């Protein structure tokens, strides 16, 4: 079983991924919890670029793909083959959303990724309006930069929701408390 959690910044993905991993571990399942960007060399480069200056759009897209290829080869595919439950905090739907918002065609990004990255069994899209998300991440949205960030997140949210009708996708309202969102996720999985 392969579960992916997606959504814009501030929706609580990391908290929910951890809670879900705890839930299944308590149930006696062997769980592998991971995230993208990864903690590997390409992931580290991407995280650093948030502080040292963003890569060019092409370089950034290319680096997310390199990071994911390595993640699939070294961790995701072997864990799934060994019958483990894999839970990911972000995956190629984030590339569709964020690099899509940067100008690339989300559908093309999806096709390129699905050539090497396994499609999840379940995609949980944590959905939250951008104002609430910005408040949660401590950014009120009244400077030029934050204004740009708001428009960008609106576009990302739209792209995430564009896959909501896939049979493996479930939209989860992320407005509620972490406990209630966790309950909604368990209910959706059941
Ligand atoms: P994030 O999960 O927010 O990491 P952290 O919690 O450590 O800040 O991911 C960092 C950023 O990377 C986030 O703003 C989304 C972006 N991102 C992409 O642009 N494309 C991708 O393919 C992925 C996986 C993430």
List keywords for this structure.
five-stranded parallel beta sheet; 190 residues; globular; alpha/beta; 8 helices; Rossmann fold; binds thymidine-5'-diphosphate; 14% strand; 5 strands
Strand content: 5-15%
Number of DSSP-assigned strands: 5
**Roughly how much helix do the residues carry, as a percent range?**
55-70%
| Poorly predicted ranges | none
Identify the overall geometry. Answer: globular
Gyration radius over CA: 16 Å
Hetero groups in this structure are: thymidine-5'-diphosphate
Name of the top-level CATH class? Alpha Beta
Order of helix and strand elements from N to C terminus: EHEHHEHHEHHEH
Provide a descriptive summary of the structure in words:
The relative contact order is 0.19. The two termini are 13 Å apart. The protein has 190 residues and is an alpha/beta fold. A 5-stranded parallel sheet has the order 2-3-1-4-5, with helices on both faces. Helix 4 packs antiparallel against helix 5. The radius of gyration is 16 Å and the shape is globular. It has one domain (2-189): P-loop containing nucleotide triphosphate hydrolases (Rossmann fold, 3-Layer(aba) Sandwich). It contains 8 helices and 5 strands. The model has no long low-confidence stretch (mean pLDDT 96). It has helices at residues 13-26, 41-52, 57-81, 92-101, 106-114, 130-136, 144-161, 178-189, and strands spanning 2-6, 31-35, 85-89, 122-127, 169-173. Thymidine-5'-diphosphate binds at residues 9, 14, 36-37, 64, 90, 94-95, 98-99.
């Amino acid at each position: 079983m392969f579960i992916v959690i997606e959504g814009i910044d501030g929706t609580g993905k990391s908290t929910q991924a951890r809670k879900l991993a705890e839930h299944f571990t308590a149930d006696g399942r062997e769980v592998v919890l991971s995230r993208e960007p990864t903690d590997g060399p390409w992931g580290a480069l991407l995280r650093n670029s948030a502080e040292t200056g963003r890569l060019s759009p092409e370089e950034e897209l290319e680096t997310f793909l390199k990071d994911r290829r390595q993640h699939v080869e070294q961790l995701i595919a072997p864990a799934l083959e060994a019958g483990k439950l894999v839970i990911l905090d972000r995956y190629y739907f984030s590339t569709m959303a964020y690099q899509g918002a940067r100008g690339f065609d989300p559908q093309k990004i999806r096709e390129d990724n699905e050539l090497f990255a396994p499609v999840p069994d379940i995609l949980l899209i944590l959905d939250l309006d951008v104002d609430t998300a910005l408040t949660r991440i401590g950014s009120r949205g009244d400077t030029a930069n934050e204004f740009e960030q708001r428009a960008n997140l609106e576009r990302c949210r739209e792209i995430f929701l564009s896959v909501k009708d896939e049979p493996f996708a479930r939209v989860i309202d992320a407005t509620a408390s972490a406990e209630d969102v966790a309950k909604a996720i368990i209910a959706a999985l059941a």
